Amino acid sequence: MKSLLEQYAVIVGNEVIDHLKQLANPLKGMKIIHINSTKEGGGVAEILNQLIPLKRELGIDAEWEVIKGSSEFYQCTKKMHNALQGNREEISGALLKAYEDTNLQNYELLGSRLQEASVVFIHDPQPAPLLRFCSVRKGKWLWRCHIDVSHPFRPVWKYLREHVEGYDASIWSLADFAQPLSHPLYLIPPSIDPLSDKNKDLSESEISGYLDSWNIDRDIPVITQVSRFDRFKDPIGVIQAYQLVKQYTPVQLVLAGGSATDDPEGAQVLNEVKEFAGNDSDIHILELPPDAHRAINAMQRGSDIVLQKSLREGFGLTVTEALWKGKPVIAGQTGGIKLQVINHYNGFLVNTPEGAALRIRYLLKHPGIMETMGNKAHEVVLNNFLITRHLQEYLTLVLALLYGSEDRIEIKMHATA
Amino acid sequence: MDCALVAIATGEKAQNLRELRDCLKTTHRGCLYFHFWGGLLRQHSSDTEFQNDFANWSSRSLNDLRVAEQLSLIDPNVHKDLESLRREIIEVIEQRLSETEYVPWAKPGNEFQFIRSQTVVFDTGIRINKPEELKEIIPNLTLSSIFYHFIDARRRTIEHKNDFIVWLSGFGKKYAELINRLDRIDPYFTTLSELREETGDIFQQYFKNRA
Q1: Which end of chain B has fewer beta carbons closer than 10 Å to its terminal beta carbon, N or C?
Q2: What ipTM describes this predicted complex?
Q3: Does A417 have pLDDT greater than 70?
């Protein structure tokens, strides 16, 4: 059985793994604790699931702790999340008290370890107040914000800022997402894991098996958008683009998203989408459970073109996943998509359903260009958006914080064998 | 030696060409370094039209190709320090502002974000005594090591040359021809992998001819 580092070396090359080993060398044996609020589900948990074993394999004493809270706590943090993304959400004093009390209770369980840790990564707003309780800490504390806070509902940001201002630094996915704070604002984009079920290679028979089960005809081109049923993802615009293309060439559309049972607005959008799609048998609307990673993987791999026609987007990890699978992506010119899709290179940036339709027709007419763009798409992710690059930047950041704050930090050490 | 770079947002943003000039007057000089050279380590941006972020933003977000072309022609190699580079960028923008009737603007969401970087430098443990050994070593160096020895060296060494030239100069005139060939490499219009290949080829050819 190959070690994790050996498995990644097959994908990214030995030089990348050697680089990680050299960066981790001075951090060997150091206690680094990551804290978030969920063990499963969501991008943060997915990243930590791989990042922690990787750090441990590099000799770092890495740990991951999950804070637990009452339903009021989660009610509060859900509202906070929405408010930070720009929704007008008033949060009552009672909910904020539950938020702070929950953090205090969790600190009572974790406090002694947090005081001793060399570095503590706090992910997102849920555990942010822990810092306030840890008055005798030895190490550096970092607040990792995975949310787009570019246009927050100000009263909620003002409240949260009081909890995060005291950190030694914060980490943001993009400069566009950050808010000014008095400490350094590091920029580290998220990543995907090429070994996960969602991204690993699948056999042709497995891909066909999934597509057959959804009655998708593999002889007719398939365009796909994978995302929640949310108006910001513009699923109606995607159907409009498909309808414009279908006037000229046979094509099938797949809209794959999570089942919307726990999201009232999602259920409403899903109904609108179904109504707009009508009885068109070439439109496939797939409601998949949150753990259907291999199914999503197969759907992306079985597609000719992937769309992400978002009107507003965070980083857009579904775009990263599609690019990794060698698919050109036609996407809205917003958020982190602009960092990933290089117009006319590995896909197209569009602003309207008409623009999306034009690019779909162009690619279907030019399969050679589609293949070239797909190869470039894979390469962009290989070089920039895999978990190994993410880890490399975390290690660099930790070294920078521990060894000084200058532009250039020289570390006296020797490479590992 | 090798290095790794991590980006830091300064929080400064420019919506138009005038704001870009104003920010450039005061911004951290590390931003100039990052926006001119950092692109080499962000590998996918090797496909961008122009060689520095200011020119690319002027083209893509301001739709001002004239200033984009002028900014792209600024060669950071000819500047002995970043303050001199800063003066030239500001001069180019001032010139454009004086000749245009309106100030080009970017759409909301497309502002220029000033970013600087921190570089962590570490020892790879690789040691050589003879220049011949470099012909085997260079093709296997990481791209970030190439960045350190070629790009970073120019602002670190007294001679503003790459580390290979500085080291070879220590052997007197023995490697003058090799130094001359290395000195002719223009690292600006290239990617790090191309730079590694070009440097490796020079060492290969030089020592092959002498074998």
Answers
A1: C
A2: 0.88
A3: no
pTM (2 d.p.): 0.90
- What CATH architecture applies to the domain A204-384? 3-Layer(aba) Sandwich (3.40)
As a whole-number percent, the residues of chain B with pLDDT over 70 amount to 97
The pLDDT tens digits for B63-109 are 999 999 999 999 888 888 899 999 999 999 999 999 988 899 999 88
- Give the span between the Cα atoms of A238 and A287, in whole angstroms: 17
Of A335, A354, A333, the C-alpha closest to A343 is: A333
The shortest C-alpha distance from B120 to chain A (Å) reads: 5
User: How many Cβ pairs closer than 8 A exist between chain A and B?
Assistant: 101
Of A279, A278, A282, A274, give the one whose Cα is nearest residue A219: A282
> pLDDT digits over A188-214, tens only?
999 999 999 999 999 999 999 999 999
Confirm or reject contact between B40 and chain A (CB < 8 A). Answer: no
Tell whether the torsion through CA atoms of A8, A9, A12 and A14 is positive or negative: positive
Q: Shortest CB distance from A407 goes to which of B10, B115, B119?
A: B119
Distance from CA of B168 to the nearest CA of A (A): 23
Chain B closest-CA separation from residue A84 CA (Å): 17
Domain(s) labelled CATH 3.40.50.2000 in chain A stretch across 4-191+386-403, 204-384
Amino acid at A56: R
A4-191+386-403 CATH choice from 3.60.15.10, 3.20.20.70, 3.40.50.2000, 3.40.50.300: 3.40.50.2000
Could B6 and A406 be called an inter-chain contact, meaning their C-beta atoms sit closer than 8 Å? no
SS3 state of residue B117: strand
